[in-house]
Each structure stands twice: as C-alpha cells, then as structure tokens.
Amino acid sequence: MNCHMMAGMTSSVSGATDAIALFIHQMIPHHQNAVNMAKALLKTGEVKCNSLTDEDPDCEMEIILREIISGQNAQIQVMRGILEAKSMPQTNDCTVTVSESAAQELKAVSMTQSNVIAAATSASETSESAPTNAAAVSSHSLAAVVLIAFAAIFIGPEIL
What pTM was computed for the model? Predict the structure, then answer.
C-alpha cells in the first residue's frame, strides 16, 4: 500500500457522517493504486505479449492489466461524479500529527539509514557483490523507518 493509498483509505474512518462518501473516499485511492501498479508492470517489459489474441500467460496478464487500467479509471470518474452530484467533498483526507519526540526519533533513524547506505556504498567499491548488498541494506533500512513511522503514528510515540 503506497502512502497516497494509506492516507486515502484511512480518511474519516472514525468521524464519517456519510457511508457513501466514506466508501468513495476510500475506493478512489484503492483504484488509483491498482491502476498505477498495472501501468508500472506494463512499463517493466516483463509482460511479453505479441498479440492479445494469443493464449499465453503473458498475454492473459496484459489483458488483465489493461482491463484494470481502463475499468478502474472509468469507475474513478463515476465515483467522482457521484460525489459532485451529491455535493460531497472530492477528498476527505485525515490529518496525521506526529509528536516532536517521534519526529526526532524518525530523523535519527533516517540519519542512521543514510550512514548504513553510505557504508554499504563505499564497500561496493571493493567488492563486486556489494552493490546487491547495498541495495538490500537500503531496502531493509527503509522498511525499518516505515515500520517505526507507522508505530509512532498509529500506536503513539511511547512505542519508541
């Protein structure tokens, strides 16, 4: 789940006054994320299909991806039209506040991540396998930062 989808799908969950608006406000980012994922996969070139009429797993996958892009984009437009027709706001994103202590902790973790990545990158100059290791360290460090951020936001800074 990307950050835009996270924000959109957690909008006004506790203070919703209209179930239709809440549903739409959560579905639009869900659909947008699916469209983005489908476009991203098509752009990788990993799905290799010569003709959409071929009975090949890649061609079947490309059909699914194109259906997601066209179908969910159309549904997004319909849902936006419903919001407009019912005079509902187009968005209803929640505001997430982070305490000063949690922000400082995230900054410290981010600085540690930068140091780890820098060390792994400098090690890559002496080893052929290090670039892969540097990327792995980077992604694992980033995952740790994200987990800490979610903990601070949703559980509270005392978790830190």
Answer: 0.51
